[in-house]
Inverse folding.
């Protein structure tokens, strides 16, 4: 498993690493590697979402489900791919929505969303690893318990966070969000090509809604331009 977690996150989540599920997860990942399977993202990037966006800086959470399972795609941030890699279909649709939601937004050529993460957007996948070319292969192995703990801790310990939940799976995580801490939950269909064809994603304006909410709290809005 990856190296050190950002200290601000470690303060809140260190107890998770001692729980039986995490020990079982470590064993599973070790067995996967010993069996010769390639795991994405690379070890050093597994906790990138936490390490680029410290606990104290989180303003917005965009929840994904699984890392991308193709070569050189995943780097620990939901919906994001490494520089130089083709922009995936879901992210293309996110960019389309941004181009109508945020005045002046220009659709970029890169799918690297690190700039968002550096501004306080936690780009969190529910499952933090995947076997190459095998979508969903590391689901229900323990990662969800860890990321659920992260969501719950954020919602309990902080106030006024925007949670953007696209699709039924992400929306199921709304049950973890503390209703007493003045968070904003934005829901719509998933930006994947199949889901957007049913309507509900385009025109939902999650990015401007998030910024309006942050500004009302006196927080700096997110510059969504990549």
């Amino acid at each position: 498993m990856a190296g050190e977690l950002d200290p601000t996150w470690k303060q809140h989540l260190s107890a998770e690493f001692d729980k039986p599920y995490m020990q079982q997860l470590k064993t599973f990942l070790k067995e996967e590697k010993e069996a010769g399977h390639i795991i994405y993202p690379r070890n050093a990037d597994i906790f990138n979402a936490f390490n680029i966006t410290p606990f104290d800086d989180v303003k917005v959470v965009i929840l994904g489900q699984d890392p991308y399972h193709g070569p050189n795609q995943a780097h620990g941030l939901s919906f994001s791919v490494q520089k130089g890699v083709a922009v995936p279909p879901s992210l293309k649709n996110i960019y389309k929505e941004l181009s109508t939601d945020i005045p002046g937004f220009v659709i970029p050529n890169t799918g690297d969303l690190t700039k968002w993460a550096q501004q306080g957007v936690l780009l969190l996948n529910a499952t933090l690893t995947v076997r190459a070319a095998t979508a969903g292969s590391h689901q229900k192995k323990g990662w969800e318990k860890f990321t659920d703990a992260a969501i719950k801790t954020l919602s309990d310990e902080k106030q006024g966070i925007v949670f953007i939940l696209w699709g039924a799976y992400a929306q199921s995580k709304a049950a973890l969000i503390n209703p007493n801490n003045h968070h904003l939950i934005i829901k719509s269909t998933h930006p994947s090509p199949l889901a957007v064809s049913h309507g509900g994603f385009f025109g939902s304006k999650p990015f401007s809604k998030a910024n309006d909410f942050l500004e009302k709290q006196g927080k700096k809005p997110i510059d969504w331009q990549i």
